[in-house]
Inverse folding.
């Protein structure tokens, strides 16, 4: 019975252009209700895949159909259910392919589904694209850190990439830090070796971090990032003060930013431990300021 239903639906959808707008809407409602019932064994990938027919897509027929289908599906199901359906249908990452070729842009995607009242789908897709950009940036940095690259050239290349991808500076700061730490070949048992490796990495590539922390707010973002990273990795818990000091010496972190974090920092992760560990350095900063 399920196989028969699948065959019928495939034939109907393959002939989508033969129906008028009202009949296509009825078919979209029927398709949505079919998957709302969660009929066991009906594979959504076999249903939605037939819609990726060039002639149907080119005329915009398919785009209107899936939009109606999604909206109807959401009448009785949550947005998470819709995403789960798209994943089972193997079209979660292929939604742009339902747009005519001349409209396959993120701008057209956002405009179309926003007008259709499917703003959560727009936001979900934007986040996926954003995450992909960050992953690509992280992979790029991993390749660069493994080679003997020129610092100035890397800075220029990285800034250009981030500009083209429209990545916020705060996200870039976090990604650069995480990529720096990922590039370290950590020792399983030798804690002192881990300390030396981490500090060497910070001192070697500190200028790269500094090129993206050009405001007090971004410097604070870097401290929060380091704080969270050290808190979540036991081997780095005691290393936090040394990293902060090394970045201060490399002119990546300003004294005012460090003191602000020390007195008013809002990230609670391991804060008491890190504040206590940073006390001697903060005391030195304050005494040096008094002497000046």
């Amino acid at each position: 019975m399920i196989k028969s239903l699948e065959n019928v639906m495939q034939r109907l959808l393959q002939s989508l252009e033969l129906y008028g707008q009202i009949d296509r809407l009825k078919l979209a409602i029927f398709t949505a209700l079919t998957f709302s019932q969660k009929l066991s064994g009906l594979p959504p990938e076999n249903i939605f895949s037939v819609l990726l027919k060039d002639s149907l897509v080119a005329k915009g027929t398919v785009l209107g159909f899936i939009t109606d289908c999604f909206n109807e599906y959401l009448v009785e199901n949550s947005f998470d259910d819709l995403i789960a359906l798209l994943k089972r249908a193997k079209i979660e990452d292929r939604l742009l392919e339902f747009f005519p070729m001349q409209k396959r842009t993120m701008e057209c995607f956002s405009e179309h589904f926003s007008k259709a009242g499917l703003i959560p789908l727009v936001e979900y897709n934007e986040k996926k694209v954003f995450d992909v950009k960050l992953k690509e940036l992280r992979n790029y940095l991993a390749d660069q850190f493994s080679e003997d690259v020129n610092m100035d050239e890397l800075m220029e290349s990285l800034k250009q990439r981030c500009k083209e991808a429209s990545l916020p500076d705060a996200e870039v700061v976090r990604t650069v830090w995480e990529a720096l730490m990922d590039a370290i070949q950590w020792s399983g048992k030798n804690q002192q070796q881990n300390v030396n490796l981490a500090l060497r990495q910070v001192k070697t590539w500190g200028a790269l971090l500094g090129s993206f922390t050009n405001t007090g707010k971004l410097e604070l973002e870097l401290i929060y990032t380091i704080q969270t990273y050290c808190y979540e990795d036991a081997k780095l818990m005691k290393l936090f003060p040394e990293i902060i000091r090394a970045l201060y010496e490399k002119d990546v972190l300003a004294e005012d930013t460090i003191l602000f974090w020390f007195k008013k920092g809002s990230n609670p992760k391991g804060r008491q431990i890190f504040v206590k560990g940073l006390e001697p350095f903060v005391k030195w900063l304050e005494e040096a300021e008094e002497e000046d």
Observations:
- The radius of gyration is 27 Å.
- DSSP finds 15 helices and no strands in the chain.
- The mean pLDDT is 90.
